[in-house]
């Protein structure tokens, strides 16, 4: 299986903490962590990051035929991007959303995650582990759906 991991605005500059790991890790270390975890699941990953909404939409639209699933952290776009929601709804590739922090208790405008309506699952507040949980969820989803045969991308 092959997954496309898409990260939205500001994630490229974020420092991450993870239980069991000393100090903070940077974005490239996060990508290495995801790649290593996916390799254990026999999943290949491609990564994409952009601070621009249109670039994220273009990447989602191009996923059909080259990825079996999408793991998406839309960053701040989660709360208002109907355009990303619609791209997820029409792209034909199952997607799971990851939010590093739980948005509840933050600003009131974060109470509705618009992008999540276009996803088959959502992992919020799990830190960087949420990415691997999302990948494992997609693997199970595709196997239950028969997707291992029907969505396989070489």
Automatic annotation (TrEMBL):
* EC number(s) given by UniProt: 4.2.1.10
**Entries under InterPro entries matching the protein:** DHquinase_II (IPR001874), DHquinase_II_sf (IPR036441)
Enzyme category, top tier = lyase
Which pathway does UniProt place it in?
Answer: Metabolic intermediate biosynthesis; chorismate biosynthesis; chorismate from D-erythrose 4-phosphate and phosphoenolpyruvate: step 3/7
Q: Which UniProt keywords apply?
A: Amino-acid biosynthesis, Aromatic amino acid biosynthesis, Lyase
Q: Which Pfam families match?
A: DHquinase_II (PF01220)
Keyword set includes Cell division = no
Q: Which CDD domains match?
A: DHQase_II
As its record notes, the protein acts as a catalyst of:
3-dehydroquinate = 3-dehydroshikimate + H2O
| Annotated residues for binding of substrate | 73, 110
Family assignment?
Belongs to the type-II 3-dehydroquinase family.
Role description: Catalyzes a trans-dehydration via an enolate intermediate.
Spell out the subunit comment. Homododecamer.
Name-wise, this protein is 3-dehydroquinate dehydratase
Gene encoding the protein: aroQ
């Amino acid at each position: 299986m092959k997954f496309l991991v898409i990260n939205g605005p500001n994630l490229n500059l974020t420092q991450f903490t993870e239980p069991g790991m000393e100090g903070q890790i940077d974005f490239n270390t996060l990508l290495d962590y995801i790649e290593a975890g996916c390799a254990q699941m026999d999943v290949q990953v491609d990564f994409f990051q952009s601070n621009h909404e249109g670039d994220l939409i273009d990447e989602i639209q191009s996923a059909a035929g080259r990825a079996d699933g999408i793991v998406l952290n839309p960053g701040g776009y989660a709360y208002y991007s109907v355009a990303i929601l619609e791209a997820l709804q029409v792209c034909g590739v199952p997607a799971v959303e990851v939010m590093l922090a739980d948005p509840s208790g933050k600003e009131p405008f974060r109470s509705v995650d618009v992008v999540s309506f276009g996803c088959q699952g959502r992992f919020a507040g799990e830190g960087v582990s949420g990415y691997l949980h999302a990948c494992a969820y997609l693997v199970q989803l595709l196997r239950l759906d028969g997707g291992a045969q029907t969505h396989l991308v070489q």
